């Protein structure tokens, strides 16, 4: 009887007997706990046939589960092996054929001399060769071999070999890029009405918490026989998007302003991350930074210093240069600057308001003035790059801001430093612009751009001895690698792993560790960050809880108090018993009663002379953001955004609407500790948190905050003109 025709009831159930042919075997499918031999009829191994047909992926041989020595994954179809004893056959599958049970059980060397690795963790001989899989796929018509790969994404480990590092991140990059592409393509809207003003069109679009639309993103407008592309140029803080179009396309809108709208996905960011990985692997023996980030084998356990490289790179530095128009460095800032100038790899942790931008500018100033070194400065966002470029330019050194081609069309306050603006000032033919660009980059002492832009071919012929990455915790690890391809001798990472990390869309790759930044993995490698300990943003009442809760009480305040009387406390929890509702989109939440309190607090601030530009409203849910916007007629350019939108920024006054209010469902991502930190640390002079204590108290971190406010007598209820202190126990029982 052919084994493919054998019914399960006819299988012989002898111990260690193949269920297809009853031959003795040591190969067992882990998922079904059944033995199958490695002999074949019709030229196919019975165990392999079974695993492909059943879509099982884990194999036990002689009671040993086959798994990767490094990452511990167990997918046989991604597994290979190396042989320490060369007397063994070079083909594991062939080697197991014909061996008796007694042979294998009595001679453990058949497996103990084998080491197994997945494709991400080392060079190996595949257990199952591609030609076997190709044959099986044609033989079993309803089996897709690719289905075995979806459950085998590699895990981001702490230590890597160069090969496993590159393979791991290239695989995760691919998975994340496909997810973003799917989301972008699903955002298509049909029959959208455009409003035209000059060469800008405005339209209402469905915001999503999944994917943020960024300035310079491209949008395709189309209808029958008509199509054109525009570029997002500004977020209105409303549901209306502003898009710049070519003057030649204006007539198309005037003729008929109803269009289908598609958000164009581009792979540039992902391509450049993969290119960086390939370049680093190619240069693995000479790129010092790449060696350091792979493993802690170069780290001195006692001092945290590198054993591989000299740490006092630039000699003893007695006096740090500080630009004349800059304030004096505090002690923690001075220590961080000195370390950055002398160490190969430096991590600087800057909690909110501690002057990360100021410290970075001083570091760069000293590299240029003391050591004549060219510096490449990058950050994940254009906003962060612009802020740092302006700060460094104020020191008097030569700064060049390089933008992506899509960004060049937008007018900004930093145009006077921008490469494309300077090139235009030379008024040369297009064919000569490349020469001018090269000369400008060569002449610059500091080049500033985003991490993605650092992968442009424009930089290929240049080297940068020093690379500084600002907001490094908001970069995925491969994004941080793009500027490292220029073989720097020194790398400085500036960020705060207690605040928000990078945005990652694919939940599977998040589980694999892709959301972890290079900064955070280096902490796991026992690199010690230099902590900036004095903050200059928040008044003392606003800093007290974040310092204790997130920074072990190390964060000190150096700000002047806000003296104006606003006829309400500067920092309090405003009780609201309104219940959450599902928003009209069906994918978010609204709390209408909280929205009323937001409106009341905003109007109170306006009444007492606070400008809309001084106020920010933070709410984690898009439904609530839209509802507040619709019901706050005075909004104007008042910024209403989620926590991510306020990362790295500040306002004089912040109003928070937490939305969640229920008996059983919990509070969702409001429970994220990093989001809480950012939410509580954006305000300089006043913070009002609106929420339901009963629901929030079920989450330990919000319970801690409520206890803090309760001890201060700052859990309040009632109208703003008649606020009354409420005992927390009466609210949560």
Automatic annotation (TrEMBL):
Domain of life: Eukaryota
Protein name: RENT1
InterPro entries found in the cross-reference section: DNA2/NAM7-like, DNA2/NAM7-like_C, DNA2/NAM7_AAA_11, P-loop_NTPase, SF1_C_Upf1, UPF1_CH/ZBD
Upf1 domain residues: 10-268
Family: Belongs to the DNA2/NAM7 helicase family.
A family per Pfam: AAA_12
Lineage, broadest ranks: Eukaryota, Fungi, Fungi incertae sedis, Microsporidia, Hepatosporidae
Keyword field: ATP-binding, Helicase, Hydrolase, Metal-binding, Nucleotide-binding, Zinc, Zinc-finger
Region (C4), start-end ranges: 68-98
Molecular-function GO terms, alphabetical: ATP binding; hydrolase activity; RNA binding; RNA helicase activity; zinc ion binding
Organism expressing this protein natively: Hepatospora eriocheir
Gene Ontology BP terms: nuclear-transcribed mRNA catabolic process, nonsense-mediated decay
Transmembrane recorded as keyword: no
GO CC term, one of those recorded: cytoplasm
